[in-house]
Design brief:
The protein has 235 residues and is mainly beta. The protein contains three helices and 14 strands. It folds into two domains: 97 residues, no CATH class; 102 residues, no CATH class.
Length: 235
């Protein structure tokens, strides 16, 4: 894999016998850095390029995840350690951006093609020239069964005429969504299936693996191998 050379010697990164061989991550409020403690070293690594801040972090056995209202990213633990060892300036982040649109998870941030820029916005009964910031993704949980669970504010925009001007309103509704994901380390990309709305809402989410998912994965792998053998035999 792309980050194999970044792995420190010995099995601790893969095995983690006890907490002395574990990696600890800390999210930083109003910062673009993530705090890391691992193998007798502590310090910071930067979030993805261009991210001035982020909303939170999560971890799974293979990746460190970081998210903000309009997207998320992940990097292998080996890549993070490589950064701390000075072998690269930043972890090898794989970034996925969420989009606005009528069929997109974030919903609309405009109406009728009008963004509302330069107009007035009604924010909690107060008129302001500033568009209210996007709430978007507020919690993300990557499950080892290769599904993501997200708590997302979906926005709709309406407008009304107060007799003097158009006034825009942003309406944000919190919903739970799930999607299948894949990670291509060679390409450095996250692949995402369609989001499925699950209903309900939560400020923080966590998901247990689907029962027997590992058995399903092994069966799928065996079928793929068998299919390749049949194709070769057919030739």
């Amino acid at each position: 894999m792309a980050d194999n050379n970044a792995k420190p010697p010995g099995p601790p990164l893969l095995g983690g016998v006890h907490h002395y061989n574990s990696i600890h991550y800390g999210a930083m409020r109003a910062s673009s850095d993530i705090f890391v403690i691992a193998f007798g070293d502590s310090g910071y690594v930067p979030a993805p390029a261009g991210w001035e801040t982020y909303s939170g972090i999560e971890v799974d056995p293979h990746y460190l995840w970081v998210f903000r209202p309009t997207g998320f990213a992940c990097a292998t633990h080996a890549s993070v350690i490589s950064c701390r060892q000075g072998k690269r300036p930043a972890p090898r982040w794989m970034v996925y951006s969420l989009n606005f649109g009528p069929n997109e998870i974030l919903g609309e941030n405009s109406i009728g093609g009008a963004s509302g820029d330069g107009n007035y916005w009604d924010v909690n009964g107060q008129l302001t020239k500033a568009k209210p910031p996007v709430k978007g993704l507020i919690s993300l949980f990557p499950c080892i069964d290769e599904t993501l669970t997200a708590s997302v504010y979906r926005r709709t925009v309406t407008r009304y005429d107060d007799g003097q001007r158009w006034v825009f309103q942003a309406n944000d509704t919190l919903d739970l969504h799930t999607a299948d994901y894949t990670i291509d380390l060679k390409a450095g990309a996250i692949g995402l299936g369609p989001w499925t709305r699950r209903g309900g809402n939560a400020m923080q989410v966590q998901k247990m693996p689907i029962p027997c998912w590992s058995l399903y994965e092994s069966l799928k792998a065996q079928l793929q191998v068998s299919a390749k053998r049949m194709v070769r035999g057919g030739k």
